[in-house]
Amino acid sequence: MSADFDAVADAPGRVNLLGEHTDYNDGFVLPVAIRQRTRVAMRRNGTKEFSLHAAELAQTVRFSFDAPPTDHFASYVYGCLVLARSRRADIPGLDIEVTSDVPMGVGLSSSAALEVATLRCLRGLLSLPLDDVEIAQIAQKAEIEFAHVRCGIMDQMASSLAGTDRALLIDTRTLDRRDVPLPLGSAVLVLDSGVARTLAGSGYNQRRGECEAAAAQLGVASLRDVREPDAIERLPDLLRRRARHVFTENARVLQAARTTDGAAFGQLMNASHASLRDDYEVSTPELDLLVSLLQAHPGVFGARLTGAGFGGACVALCKSDQVQAVADAVLAQYSAAGHRGRLLVP
Ligand code: GLA
């Protein structure tokens, strides 16, 4: 990236340790930032147009507020520009350069990293009075309105506020949050299942709709508000299983945030995977295999799919001195079963 830019900013991807599909139900999540980051640089170009170059995609897209981009990737940046403009009328024409080493399409929030880095860069360029929570809120809005994924706020909050050395417990209703240290002697491992996943094309929005239907039948504003697990058991089968996942997953997050014991934390991750597989039905045979290989390794406290599911990555909490050994052994077994995985974190 050349030096003659007016503003430069970056933001990380994230991996979620626990609390999957809870954020759009006003629930609890426990993500941690990853070392991979997306960098955005901007230069005023003296026109009314935007030229967006994405180094990793080897793609340049030109657009303006009058002629929005049709390209999916550019729509994230365009959405941030439109929403920033609604805060401050005069956004100048810009040359925008994006570079990133956040893996795309595996559930590590490359889109949130792009949105947050774009908004941070605009904040620097235009001295926008935005704090990090507002950046996350605008980024989420950009994703919903311009990329048409009805996502929750976990990814953008994590990219905007989480660190890499400790997890961030977020109450997605109030946006209250606190740091949660990883269990003693543990470290995070993320492996890609090699199965592609597209969030908008998947059943993500459908799951969200099912949760809303379950909440309506239970007479609560959102599944976060369910107090009586017995009421869930009286729902029709599909909604019962969706609501049960959300209810039990919230409990697991709160329990995990209280423990400093790797084994106890790992058990909660294993239970989360079973719930995502059986009740929420967002796993795949490849994810199930990779997770079971991880869970069977003595260097692993616990493992589960991470992110929305439907393909993508698995996260494991490992004994900190065994992370590489676990990765090597499990990837070899996965490959012997005819699949192509890869190491994403560390
Ligand atoms: C995606 C969404 C998040 C969250 C997860 C599932 O990453 O962007 O808001 O819903 O899926 O936990």
Overall mean confidence score, pLDDT: 95
Describe the main β-sheet briefly. 5 strands, mixed
| CATH fold call of the largest domain | Ribosomal Protein S5, domain 2
Strand order of the largest sheet: 1-3-6-4-5
The helical percent reads 40-55%
- What Rg, in angstroms, do the CA atoms define? 20 Å
Instruction: Give the SSE order as H and E letters.
Output: EEEEEHEHHHEEEHHHHHEEHE
The name of the CATH architecture of the largest domain is 2-Layer Sandwich
What is the highest CATH level, the class of the largest domain? Alpha Beta
How many strand elements?
12
Number of helices: 10
Percent of sequence in beta strands: 15-25%
Low-confidence stretches: none
Number of domains: 2
Q: N- to C-terminal separation?
A: 25 Å
Indicate the overall shape: globular
The bound ligands are:
alpha-D-galactopyranose
Structural class: alpha+beta
Walkthrough of the structure:
By secondary structure, this protein is an alpha+beta fold. The protein has two domains: 174 residues, Ribosomal Protein S5, domain 2 (2-Layer Sandwich), CATH 3.30.230.10; 163 residues, 2-Layer Sandwich (Alpha-Beta Plaits), CATH 3.30.70. It is 40% helix and 23% strand. It has ten helices and twelve strands. The strands form three sheets. The chain has a five-stranded mixed β-sheet with strand order 1-3-6-4-5. The chain has a four-stranded antiparallel β-sheet with strand order 10-11-9-12. A three-stranded antiparallel β-sheet has the order 2-7-8, with helices on both faces. A hairpin with a 5-residue loop joins strand 7 and strand 8. Helix 1 packs parallel to helix 2, helix 2 packs across helix 4 and helix 7 packs antiparallel against helix 8. The longest helix is centred in the last third of the chain and has 20 residues. It is globular. The chain starts with 6 loop residues before the first strand and ends with a strand. The model has no long low-confidence stretch (mean pLDDT 95). Bound molecules: alpha-D-galactopyranose (GLA). The site of alpha-D-galactopyranose has 10 residues, from helix 4.
